[in-house]
Amino acid sequence: MGPIAILLIFLLSISSLAQERYFEDSSFSMLAGGQSKYKRVYNIENDHVNIEDYVGSYRVHKGQVYGLNDVKQIDSYISYCVSLNNINADRDYSKNAQGIFRINSNKGNKLRQVYVKGNSIRTGQVWDEEGNEKLINGTGILNIDSRDEISTTIYKDSMLLNAYIVRKEKRDTIFQVFQKRAEPIGGLKNYYQKIYDKVGFPKNGKPGETISFSIKVKLIVNEDGELSDLSAEAFSVKLLKSYPKNGIPIHPEPLADPQYDYMGEKIIKEMKKLPKWNPAEKDNKPVRTESILTFGFHVST
Asked: What is the pLDDT of residues 101-116, one digit of tens each?
């Protein structure tokens, strides 16, 4: 029996013993009309937390996180672990964290198995769309040709060497692995503050209601620092009770109405007024990359 099969049996055995806690997590539930189809399940054990992420009925992530017990830190670490190493996890709390994850597609097909220690990610195996293993001793290339794009990932000795997407219609390349990430001139902290100062806070909450929600903005930073392909999504949680110390809400209620989508439009409008970014660099050359900014709001009325 191979190591992946043993890992899956181990994960299944501990999941059956854990007490499950369900809620629509703010970093995973993106509302696009109606109740969110995104769900994260936390199974809390003595020395680790088991997580399962679902899109509708399909499980897209399953794994374990060791060394963390704050839900916001866990969510941030999961984002790093399941990404193609393009989300910054350079934080003090991540140094002692560890994770094991199986990443599936939105249809439930297996894609990658990763092992993470601190900020170091090792890939155990990747699968193509037909379920064929593509790595031999941690080395190989995975190409996926979809209707709109071709994605390529290159691995050697379980390390991700390169990853990029070629968009067919636009005939350009978006790099996912690089040495220097794209950043606004003056830094992200200053950039966020400028946006917050301009867009303000919504005032359409009900009296006595506390709403915590976020706006996720996706964008392309081109080689010259110009922004393009900006889009925004609101994802929200209505807090019926306050957060306990571990950060997991007791009885949250997902917002069925995406009433704060207009805030994303306001954010994009202000972003277009600001100067260019410093582009990402790969091998000392500017490259086109995708970035995601998350703007959080906590509104009490």
From this structure: 999 887 788 999 999 9
